[in-house]
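Re: weekly structure request thread

Next one in the queue (219 aa):
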Amino acid sequence: MATPSRIEINRAEINRANAQHSTGPKTEAGKKQSSLNALRHGLTGQIVVMPIEDLEAYQAHLKSFTDEYYPKGATESHLVQALADASWRLNRVAALETNLLSLAATGEPLIDAMGIAASLESQSKALANLSMHSQRLSRQFERTVIQLRNLQETRQAKEKHELNQLIDIIEMIESQGQVYDPSEHGFVFSEPQIESAIRLRSRERLAEEAYEYSLESAA
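Done, posted below.
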C-alpha cells in the first residue's frame, strides 16, 4: 500500500480545520436559504428522503400506500413505491413554496399581502421552477396510478378465473370421493382463499335457487 505524501496529509488537515471553522448560516433567512439549497436537486434526484427530512415519516408515508394498494409481485411493488415517492416529492414542493414565500419576512409587523407580494417578486423564478416540478410530478403520479390499477385489474381477473377453475376441479374430484391437492396442477392459492371462494359459490347457488323458487311460486 502506498504511503500518503506530505501534501496529501497537509490537505486533509486543512480540510478538517476548515470544516471545524465552518458554522453555516446564522440568520433565520440564511438558514432558510440553506435548507432550500440542500433541497435544490431533491425533486429530480435519486435520493427520495433528503438528509433534513424524517425517514420514519417517509416510511409511514410509504406504508399508507402499501396498505391502500396491497401490491403483489415486483412490478406492483415498484409502482406503489413510485407513487409514494412522487407524492412525497409533491409534498416537498408545497413545503419549498412555503419557505420561498417566507424568505422575505423579516419579523417586522408588515401587512401580509405586501410581504407575499414582495416574496413573489423576488422569488418568481424559483416559484416557476417549483410549479414546473409540481406539474411534472402530478402527471407522473396520475400515470402511475392508471398503470397500477390496470395491472391489478388484469391480475385480479386472472386470479378469479383460475380460482373458479380450481373450485370446479375440487367439486368434481370430491364428488368422486377423492381428495385433491391444488399444488399438483400449479395452483398457488392459500387455504383461506380457497375456502372463501367455496363459501362464495355456495352463497351464489343458494341465491340462484331462491330466485328460481320465487319465480316458480309467482307463476
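DSSP finds seven helices and no strands in the chain. The radius of gyration is 30 Å.
Next request, please.
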